[in-house]
Design a protein that fits this description.
Length: about 270
């Protein structure tokens, strides 16, 4: 498994996203993913499945220190005392002394960013997380966060797939030594009938989803596709035996369009 290195963190380039996975099904998928070779699992307080993610990890028999576990703090816990308490509650649910990466899930303009980042950095110095970062931050918010945070930020986790141009955010991450972690990397399945991805996939004996994930990995991006199907788990990790040409990469970059974003909420920041 390739690693994306960023400000001291080594993030496996393919992970399992667990949004919308619940209960026994969630624990089972996490367990299977780890047995298939995944070493990066992503959860969040808002997903209401931290407990099951922890169960899946323990059931897999893979040692805790071999798995990179991320969780994300929901926006109503951004006040400093509340943040620390909520992180400790997440760790109780996961049954872990610490996570590898702790993220702010979305920006929250109701709480001063410097205060939230101070509390996030404090959670790291207390040993609750090995690394810290942000999610759904724009270029301006990345710059503000890097200046305000007393500890290095290792990533911005954002929606990224061929239909959404994230060049500006990617550049801001590179300039600040941060990784970009891509959620919805196969555009919630919308890519599966894309003629360009189908054609490149046919030439490579790969599926459109595998082409998509390979395109991200070749940009030094870490991708966290979510699936509840075991056969898809195997497929999503089977992308390290081929390389896309510069021309194929460019063809995929050209698929981006202004209406490409799939995850947008009223509380979202003003996107780049």
């Amino acid at each position: 498994m390739q690693l994306v290195e960023a400000n001291g963190a080594k993030i496996p380039s393919i992970g399992l996203g667990t949004w919308e996975l619940r209960g026994r099904a969630c624990a089972r998928v996490v367990e299977q993913a780890l047995r298939l070779g995944y070493r990066h699992i992503d959860t969040a307080q808002a997903y209401d499945n931290e407990r099951e993610v922890g169960e899946g990890l323990r059931a897999s028999g893979i040692r805790r220190d071999e798995v990179f576990v991320t969780t994300k703090i929901w926006t109503n816990h951004f006040a400093p005392h509340d943040l620390e308490r909520s992180v400790k509650e997440s760790l109780v649910r996961l049954r872990m002394p610490a996570v590898d990466l702790l993220l702010l899930h979305w920006p929250n303009p109701q709480v001063p960013l410097a205060e939230t980042l101070g509390a996030l950095a404090h959670a790291k110095t207390m040993g609750l997380a090995r690394h810290i970062g942000v999610s759904n931050f724009t270029v301006a918010l990345i710059e503000e966060a890097v200046k305000a945070c007393p500890e290095p930020l290792v990533c911005d986790q954002v929606e990224y797939h061929p239909y959404l141009d994230q060049a500006k955010v990617r550049q801001a991450c590179v300039q600040n030594g941060m990784a970009l972690v891509a959620y919805s990397p196969i555009a919630k399945g919308k890519i599966k009938n894309d003629p360009i991805l189908v054609r490149i996939g046919r030439d490579r004996h790969k599926t459109p989803a595998q082409i998509c994930l390979r395109w991200l990995v070749q940009q030094n991006v870490s991708a966290i596709p979510r699936t509840s199907r075991i056969e898809r788990l195997s497929e999503n990790i089977d992308i390290f035996d081929f390389e896309l040409s510069d021309d194929e990469m460019d063809q995929i970059f050209r698929l981006a369009h202004p209406k490409g974003r799939l995850t947008d909420f009223g509380f979202a920041p003003k996107w780049d």
